């Protein structure tokens, strides 16, 4: 592959499930969202079933999201053509028949792990088992919540950001970042579908955020073992297993009972080539019934991610302003580079198949 | 959704007769074969009486990387010229083709399917059968109708994949097919995909519309090529312009009028949009309505017809256009 394709590579596979909305965002109401450069209109049927249709009337391409919903039927806001939830036209004005080709594309859609997922590629290949595992988001043994932010950058830049957490030290210095993250060694592994970056920081002073979390469960003032296990699943999901345990209580060996554990769940859906819908959540396995803890964490992570958003948008702008420049990759980028390569392989395979 | 065509060069690969009067033609594009979903068709630039025209042919079977496109063309004795041209091709002949486009997409949001193919209407249906059989959570049945085994391609391939789920009806042995039987093969969840000659399509549509199921669950595709009568030549009188125009048996009313510089609005050229409708002032013989725009009731009134596909059989016609200058 020529090096030039790396920095500006904005490609994404079509045969994949992409998160398009939080469960609570989708109502019996038309919601426009652009996914993989394709405008979609989303809604729930009266019985709650989520629906995703192409957001352009078959007739004169007006976005159907400009129209209205009558029961489960979408009514175009221009000439009143009607479509059922399969995207089949069921009414055409001033004629007795309906043109047999009249339909808009309907996309496979599934609600799982509190997200609405849409399959953009060949519907024959849409298989529910291919949805990335994000069960921590609706598992009763975990508590948490999250948000969606629209970021003005290519989705790959967000994946890069999450695959290398040394940036915490510099972007999030007052909360989760400290020198230990930037200085601790890490391991990188991969397979056909995933890339994992594992970093253990043993016997360190916890940063302010983690000290606060640990103290909700344990009365402990000393050092901790801290971990970050970042797992990428192609093309755009990154689940990060994070936490701290009282130092030398066996957390790395598998006994996390003297610690607190969280999952930072991220799935970053390509919207256009230079915008993405970034869905994230933070789930924890401690202090489960404390709802203020949930709100506090959600607000805390939202603050941290707004710092990332600022960096990522500035980075995208700089990429556009320096079209002759390539990234210089460092050792710390190994996880991000494996993630990109796995996604590139997926895109290439899709072209070949 | 309608897509703008992009055209590319291609060459004809293997040509093989797969039934009496049906030629299977492989088409190898200059670039990579584009991924397509079942139900897709190709537009092909053909020459008819040495003039360029475009014909649509359904792709047979499912997409495979490095697999050429495959179509199957029935030779019609009184064709508009497309089948004659296609049959005249040879391995290595050059063609211009569009990208595959799908106006007859198979939905996957139900579990019950009935596929109905009549004669050469098998071409888009074959890939659908293969696609559905590959999915274990789908119940599929298929009805394949035609005159005789010799005239119906792919029966063996279908029997192999569908087994008992395939019902074959030979009209030369089994006689007339009673379309009301299809309702017994369906329930409220069943999606029906239909392609075949107009007589079959009309009968199935009528049965379906009078049956208990949702109209949108019957899906069909037509390229406007078949009628209730064999095409015949006839004369059209247009009193407004004091003109008389001859329509040859291999020519449409629309093209005859346009050739005579009589302006008619049109768009789809396959009897779906209704833009080419003309007022019928008088006629003898039969109006062979081949469109899917007018309702059965409107067709019965014989007050209007679609110039792009419909014809006159056993007589002549007097029409008016929309011109009021």
Automatic annotation (TrEMBL), chain A:
Keyword Oxidoreductase among record annotations: yes
SUPFAM superfamilies listed in its UniProt record: Bet v1-like, ISP domain
Classification via Gene3D superfamilies: Naphthalene 1,2-dioxygenase Alpha Subunit, Chain A, domain 1, Rieske [2Fe-2S] iron-sulphur domain
Alphabetized UniProt keyword annotations: 2Fe-2S, Iron, Iron-sulfur, Metal-binding, Oxidoreductase
Signal peptide range in chain numbering: none
Domain of life: Bacteria
Keyword Iron-sulfur: yes
Residue ranges constituting the Rieske domain according to the UniProt record: 17-118
Protein name, UniProt field: Vanillate demethylase subunit A
UniProtKB/TrEMBL annotation, chain B:
SUPFAM superfamilies for this protein: 2Fe-2S ferredoxin-like, Ferredoxin reductase-like, C-terminal NADP-linked domain, Riboflavin synthase domain-like
Membrane-traversing stretches: none
Cofactor section: FMN
Record bears the keyword Oxidoreductase: yes
Keyword Protein biosynthesis annotated: no
Listed InterPro entries: 2Fe-2S_ferredoxin-like_sf, 2Fe-2S_ferredoxin-type, 2Fe2S_fd_BS, Beta-grasp_dom_sf, DmmA-like_N, FAD-bd_FR_type, FNR_nucleotide-bd, MRET
Domain FAD-binding FR-type stretches: 5-107
Gene3D superfamilies per record: 3.10.20.30, Nucleotide-binding domain of ferredoxin-NADP reductase (FNR) module (3.40.50.80), Translation factors (2.40.30.10)
Taxonomic superkingdom: Bacteria
Boundaries of every 2Fe-2S ferredoxin-type domain copy: 234-325
Keyword terms of this UniProt record: 2Fe-2S, Flavoprotein, FMN, Iron, Iron-sulfur, Metal-binding, Oxidoreductase
PANTHER family (alphabetical): BLR2392 PROTEIN (PTHR47354:SF2), NADH OXIDOREDUCTASE HCR (PTHR47354)
The name this protein goes by in its record: Vanillate demethylase subunit B
């Amino acid at each position: 592959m020529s090096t030039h394709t790396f920095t500006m590579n904005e490609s994404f596979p079509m045969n994949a499930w992409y998160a398009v909305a939080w469960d609570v965002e989708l109502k019996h109401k038309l919601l426009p969202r652009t996914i993989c450069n394709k405008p979609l209109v989303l809604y729930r049927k009266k019985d709650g079933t989520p629906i995703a249709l192409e957001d352009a009337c078959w007739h004169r391409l007006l976005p159907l999201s400009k129209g209205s919903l009558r029961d489960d039927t979408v009514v175009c806001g221009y000439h009143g053509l009607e479509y059922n939830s399969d995207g089949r036209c069921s009414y055409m004005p001033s004629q007795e028949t309906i043109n047999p080709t009249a339909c808009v594309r309907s996309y496979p859609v599934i609600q799982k792990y509190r997200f609405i997922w849409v399959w953009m590629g060949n519907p024959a290949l849409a298989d529910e088992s291919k949805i990335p595992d994000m069960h921590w988001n609706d598992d009763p043994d975990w508590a948490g919540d999250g948000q969606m932010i629209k970021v003005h950058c290519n989705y790959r830049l967000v994946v890069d950001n999450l695959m290398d957490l040394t940036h915490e030290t510099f972007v999030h210095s007052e909360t989760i970042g400290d020198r230990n993250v930037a200085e601790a060694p890490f391991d990188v592994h991969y397979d056909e579908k995933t890339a994992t970056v594992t970093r253990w920081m043993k016997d360190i002073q916890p940063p302010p955020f983690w000290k606060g979390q640990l103290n909700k469960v344990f009365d402990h003032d000393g050092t901790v073992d801290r971990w970050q296990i970042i797992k990428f699943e192609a093309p755009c999901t990154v689940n990060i297993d994070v936490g701290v345990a009282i130092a030398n209580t066996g957390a790395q060996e598998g006994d996390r009972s003297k610690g607190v554990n969280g999952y930072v769940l991220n799935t970053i859906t390509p919207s256009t080539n230079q915008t993405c819908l970034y869905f994230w959540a933070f789930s924890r396995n401690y202090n489960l019934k404390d709802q203020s803890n949930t709100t506090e964490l959600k607000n805390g992570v939202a603050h941290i991610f707004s710092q990332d958003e600022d960096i990522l948008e500035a980075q995208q702008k700089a990429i556009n302003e320096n079209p002759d420049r390539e990234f210089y990759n460092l050792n710390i980028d190994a996880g991000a580079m494996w993630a990109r390569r796995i996604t590139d392989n997926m895109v290439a395979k899709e072209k070949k198949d | 959704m309608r897509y703008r065509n992009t055209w590319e060069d291609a060459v004809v690969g293997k040509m093989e007769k797969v039934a009496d009067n049906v030629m299977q033609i492989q088409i190898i594009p200059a670039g990579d074969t584009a991924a397509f979903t079942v139900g897709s068709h190709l537009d092909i630039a053909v020459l008819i009486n040495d003039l360029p025209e475009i014909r649509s042919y359904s792709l047979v079977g499912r997409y495979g990387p490095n697999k050429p496109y495959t179509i199957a063309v029935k030779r019609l004795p009184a064709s508009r010229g497309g089948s004659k041209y296609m049959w005249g091709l040879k391995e290595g002949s050059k063609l211009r083709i569009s990208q595959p486009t799908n106006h007859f997409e198979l939905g996957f949001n139900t579990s019950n399917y009935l596929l109905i193919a009549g004669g050469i209407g098998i071409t888009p249906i074959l890939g659908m059968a293969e696609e559905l059989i590959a999915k274990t959570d789908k119940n599929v049945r298929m009805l394949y109708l035609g005159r005789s085994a010799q005239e119906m391609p792919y029966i063996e391939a279908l029997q192999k994949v569908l087994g008992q789920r395939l019902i074959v009806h030979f009209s030369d042995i089994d006689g007339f097919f009673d379309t009301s039987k299809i309702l017994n093969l369906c329930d409220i969840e069943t999606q029906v995909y239909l392609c075949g000659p107009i007589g079959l399509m009309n009968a199935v549509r009528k049965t379906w519309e009078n049956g208990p199921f949702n109209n949108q669950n019957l899906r069909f595709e037509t390229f406007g090529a078949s009628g209730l009568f064999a095409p015949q030549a006839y004369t059209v009188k247009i009193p407004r312009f004091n003109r008389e125009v001859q329509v040859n048996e291999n020519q449409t009313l629309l093209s005859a009028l346009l050739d005579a510089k009589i302006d008619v609005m049109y768009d789809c050229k396959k009897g779906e949009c209704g833009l080419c409708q003309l007022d019928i002032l008088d006629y003898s013989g039969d109006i062979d309505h081949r469109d899917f725009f007018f309702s059965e009731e409107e067709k019965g009134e014989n007050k209007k017809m679609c110039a792009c596909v419909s014809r006159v059989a056993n007589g002549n016609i007097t029409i008016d256009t929309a011109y009021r200058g």
